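Final report, Chapter 2: Outcomes

The project's central promise was a pipeline that accepts a single protein chain and returns its three-dimensional structure in a standardized token representation, suitable for archiving and comparison. That pipeline is now operational. To close this chapter, we reproduce one record exactly as it appears in the project archive, with the input sequence first and the structure output second.
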Amino acid sequence: MERVKPHIHRTPILTSGLLNQISECELYFKCENFQKMGAFKMRGATNAILNLSVEKKQKGVVTHSSGNFAQALSLSAKNLNVPAYIVMPDSAPEVKKAAVRTYDGKITECPSTLKDREETASKIQEETGATFIHPSNNLDVILGQGTAAMELLEDYPDLDYVVCPVGGGGLIAGTALTVKYFGNNCKCIGGEPMEADDAWRSLKSGKIETNESANTMADGLKTQLGDQNFPIILKHVDKIIRVTETEIKESLRLIWERMKIIVEPSSAVPLAAILKEKENFKNKKVGIIISGGNVDLSKLPF
């Protein structure tokens, strides 16, 4: 926590009387849409770079990402004077590539398959000596992401639940560890789209499951769990609640209209999960991690 503090924003926690009424519980929204580069991923990227040796920092960092982590690693690296090599699928939106370039990330494009991304990143590692940093399956990244929940619990130590979205598993693993060791009988719960429910299935089967397809508007949640974060999730996440595209859209609209803040569809998934299982959260104090606000305004679902 102290390590990343000088390099990130302590984001605001917002409340809404109307959303408390609708959900029949007390909601506390940790707004990582106001984080540097617009998402919680700045925390993990910063922590991972800060933990490198001086020699490794000089050679730089490399990752593969189509969006938020590409921006987070680029900006963190720029702030810490470290070269950043970013592998992006050629299908990534131009607006995201432009953002990475703004933060001085050196982009290499490749076909959008995971195999192509990994091979391209490996090649850059060999050529430059840069350290590979995975967007979600890296312990330093996971611990960095957990600092959002840490700040939330510092301000509201008596929360009953902290709910966050589940994609690659870095945020929920970090959140679950924070809740376990710093919460007061607090539980960590995940929200996940039905259309990309690999984490829900993984919790059921006890092994990492994959998605054949992931046709969800919550585009930040299409990635799958990894061998570093899955054991943490298995041990410390109470449950994962799946939500439909309609439920995500309705919650997204509620946040935009009632809270007057711009959030991406992935960020609406936790609220959708709470509204879906209202009886389980009734009269409880519930923290929600609003994961980010990097929304493509030309593709809004309403």
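Archive annotation: The first strand starts at residue 13 and ends at 14.
This record, like all others produced under the grant, will remain available to the consortium after the project formally closes.
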